[in-house]
Write the structure tokens for this entry.
Amino acid sequence: MSYYDREVETLTRKEINELQFDRLKWQALRCYESPFYRDKWDAVGFSPRHLQNLSGVANIPFVTKDELRLEQAKFPPFGRFVVGPRETWREIHPSSGTTGNPVYTIWGEDDIANITDVTARTMWSFGVRPGDIIQNAFSYGLWVAGMSAHYAAGRLGCLVIPIGAQLTNKQIEFIVGAGSTVLLCTPSYSVHIAERIAEAGISPDDTALRLGCFGGEGGTENPGTRSKIERGLGISAYDYYGIAELGPTFASECTEKAGLHWAEDHYYVEVVDPGTKMPCSEGETGVLVITHLTRQTTPMVRYWTNDMARVVHEPCRCGRTHARSPGGILGRSDDLVIYKGAKFYPLQVEKVVRSFTELSSEYRVELACDEVGHDVCTVVVEEVAALAPSVRESFRKALREEILVTPEIRVQPFGTLERTAFKAKRLFDLRHTTVASPD
């Protein structure tokens, strides 16, 4: 059976849009009862009665993470955007990230059911089947991806190893000893596990792993990254996407590897120009803006994700008809590097780094100032073995072709850059600090 829910996954575009509009009107009416949304919408003259079609969503103001932080600081602990009745609340989850206070979202009873169902749908689409042994190396506890994948694995009839994002030696022990068939974690952690497996002298052919899906950060769809994961672990690798405020695991690739599939029956997905704040054309790259259509307790309406992507609506080769984002997440709008007139994202650097077998998978981009105050951009990489001058030059040329500028390059010994099981920090802006960057 190819589909988890054939009827939903193969709806016509007309049926999808009609369903979305009905659910958007329902959600807008609910949210207007909350002081948070009522104040925002009244300030711009918007009322739910103004919604006449789906395109009317463009008249609703965006919601940002900073707004949610401020709201919860002013009205602790959860702010005024909680809509569902308290007796239905079941779980509290903070947002992930390395800066700022977390934003607390609440899952109600129906929310957990929907999150579990959508995640099970994504897992089925990339090949998980009953009886699989899922090594869930997404972080557990308060980080939402571990929980949603755990619930969905049970829904699909799989055996779950709830190891979480820690203990790399234990990860390898379970891969080898327990016969794990599916690995879930961040792409950065998957390449680290692959490195450690190689160091241990274990052949990927000697494990039962057959596939993995990797989220929490972009990059899985970069050809170099996908290749390193697949060769290093002996698996087929797929992309995963989610945001704590919206849903931990609600978009993934299918076995066609043709981009992230969006669950449009639960989420209304827009792509917006970050400068003009106007909708982008079909296939144009912009910021993802996402609206909950079914979230009961802490619904987000036009949430500004800061993630750059493009969306297309033609059906996938797999037969699914919901919108897709080919290439996955292309960067973070707040990670845009502007250097000598060129604009690029760290994920573009990753694409080049991981295409060179002479380099490890780790890298970072440093921004600093020289002695006269000019910006200096340095790409820091690790050599697997002593890097030949010809390889250095090929790497420099490949970087320039990808990002349209030639940065400084610093090559360090293998193992000197930090590995992480969580979101990897790739951009270090040192222009306004005197603290030296760590080696």
